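2.7 Reproducibility. Because tokenized structures are sensitive to small changes in the input, we list the exact sequence used for DUF1972 domain-containing protein, including any N-terminal residues retained from the expression construct. No trimming or masking was applied before prediction.
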Amino acid sequence: MTPPPDRAGRIAILGTVGVPGRYGGFETLATQLADAAAARGLSDRLTIWCSAPQTPAPRPTTYLGAELRYLPLSANGAQSVPFDALSLWQAARSGHDAALLLGVSGALALPLIRARFPMRIIAHPDGIEWQRPKWGRLARTILRRSEAMAARHADVVIADNPAIAAHIRDSYGRDPVEIAYGHEHALSTPPPPSTTSPCRPPMRWHWPALNPRTTSPPSSPPSPIARPPCRSSSSPIGRRQPMAAPCAAVTRPMPGSA
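Resulting structure tokens (single pass, no recycling of outputs):
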């Protein structure tokens, strides 16, 4: 099936509460992708599926030129399974060329989507969701099966840290694209400790298990340095640093994108 001319090159972002991001990391990611599309004049190619119950009225229909569509379901919890599956179906039926699926709760629908539509699917798992203790046995079974469907049927699987990449590789024999994001938007970082500073770090004890160069433990544990690290208001150690907003770097361009 060939997408209609007016939909060619269209990209769907699925699996989030909505934009602008006010809920979590995936919402912030979707917001920053929309910002990047607007900066490149590509907003008209972007559609973002949102949760109507989790978006206060009046609900906007666009964000920076990107189209917003709403489903009457929550994007989190048990309703995330039909939310993701239905948004996948709608994106494919409306002729979108590619879909970025943030979270894989509804990936059980991927075999059907792949059998009927040519839409390219990029899946970004949200950690190892089925291992979280908040889920019961049935939910864990569904989430684990959904993870397997995403790993096997998505065109591309994205992992945002080495642990998730290793899990996907070891469990499903699939090499994900590893994209660590968020650090490049840090507002500030503490400077390295100064060797001339009157505030000294506490002394590290060297035991054989931690330091192979030590052949035997000392007869008595060494005393830590009496002077503790400074926690003054002028020290970056004593201040809470602003949290970095996550964003994503696209390493493989989707069809129809610049």
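The chain has a mean pLDDT of 75.
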